[in-house]
Specification:
heterodimer; A: 339 residues; Rossmann fold; 2 domains; 5-stranded parallel beta sheet; 9 helices; globular; B: 293 residues; alpha/beta; 8 helices; 26% strand
Amino acid sequence: MKSVFVYCEVEDQKVADISQELLSAGKRLAQKLGCPMEAMVFGTDLKDISNQIAHYGVDKIHVADDERLEPFRTLPHASIATKILKKEDPQIILLGATAIGRDLAPRLASVLNCGLTADCTILDIGDHFVKKEKKEYKDLLYAIRPAFGGSIMANIINWDMHPQMATVREGVMKKEIFDENYKAEVINVPVDEIVKDEDFIVKIIERHIEESDVNLKEAPIIVAGGYGVGSKKNFKYLEQLSDLLGGEVGGSRAAVDAGFIDHNRQIGQTGVTVRPKLYIAAGISGAVQHTAGMQDASLIISINNDPDAPMNKLADYVIEGDVSDVIPKMIKYYKKNAK
Amino acid sequence: MRPLKIIVLAKQVPDTRNVGSDAMKPDGTVNRGKLPVIFNPDDLHALELALNIKDRNPETQVTILTMGPKRAADIIREGYYRGADYGIMISDKRFGGADTLATSYTLVKAIQKLSPFDLILGGRQAIDGDTAQVGPQCAEKLNIPQVTYVEEVVSFTDTEIIAKRRLDKGVETVSSPFPCLMTVHETSPVCRSRHAKQVMKYKYARTNTELKSRSTDELILSLHEARPYLGIPEWGVEDIDAEMEKIGLSGSPTKVKSVESIVLTSEESKVLSDSDADIEMMIKELIENHTIG
């Protein structure tokens, strides 16, 4: 049976978080379909890379190991991936909705002449009856994603031009080791036979990666502010509370647009998706654009002047009041009561 | 330096950033009529990048290409107002319902008619879908390199262009030979405003469809007689020699099975005041159940 296929991103011999999430999600689909799962990984010095991949339940791993394949460049990766995908002919292909995945996936979809659904947050398997053809298509990929600025969720299917491709947002799927001892067949891809000189005409002149000190995704506690915080100065209160609780500060798009907070701390559909233990939403009205990126938080506190703010409907605690008044009180009483 | 030929891909989109409560119909589908349409924000950045290249190399020719219904001619006029040299509209009912694969096929057929070119620029993504797919798909079909997420053109010569890209966690400077396609990131400079002289010149630019269907007054018709540049070319299926099975709905593999409007789940929330007593009580609860502390 045709496989589920995952493109794994790798940097400095480490498989990216998003790819581990995809492998976990891919395995769940493969189990529903009763089909094998395959992965491909392209980079430099990848001798032991399969050890980071196999335990997600991968049956076959295609490794392209060549010093020219890292850092990522579109053309060589696209050439190699196309060659492998045409040969293996999978039914489903998954990539991360990252800078790399969103660059590579459409190029592949075009060459494979197939459908591609971007930025999915839910993947499932199901059937679809096509009225025109009076035919039931079984076991299709349901690629579900927010659309129209996050105001709707759309279930996108592709019944006649396979493979079915999707990119998946980072931080949405749960990482899940399938079996520590799972054995995968490792295939070394003959890179030299596939790539041509023309694949390297785009040259990287300089590369500057900021090792970000912002780690919203892993933070157990997030203190996030919206436009209602009022000013950059007021955001200091949020920082104080977050430092005290061992959390991170985040913001809505409105707060980023207003210049209250840096764009690398933006939470929401454009921005990071988070699922912390505690989410404190200060002066955030709760547009779907924002809530799409935080609604899975275990506990939500909403601080808002407006009793009708949509965020209040999501919240476990609603505090009606000014952010600049409430947060200092929270700091005060935390200091008083914490052991 | 030789003049460059640049094509800017631009789209008219519903303004999804300002979705009001009446934007959804009771059955959960989008009420497109209630959404105002705008020039896709990232595409304006792409236009600026093209005009910036033209500033540095004034003989450069900037053509703006859009696909959409009749009213999308606004995109061409807006492009003229800000400094584009030419505008082409792809418009035909049979192109409707296209997903990104069918859209890129259609655009590429039009681009091939405009060939040769040096550079194709488009926004990173359009806000009505946020897919970021059409750019790379066009590049693949044209068999040219793509440079995504560009925020600055550092320099260019007769044969190559050097640009800075914005990545998830940093920046990368790359060089690419011409011809190539670039998608432009929202962190690039915002587009210059309309130029009064250009507005005066192109205010009455119209497509044929517009000339025919609107209650067009005699003045505009006579202006079009005298000034052929006011006519916005309108290309349909036959003009770009497109294959029917590759355009519109039939050329689109992805189909919407269902849509669901998002209703925030309302679990019971505790509503507190901003009094000291209420806040201390909440903090104590959170410490006790080990959420914090």
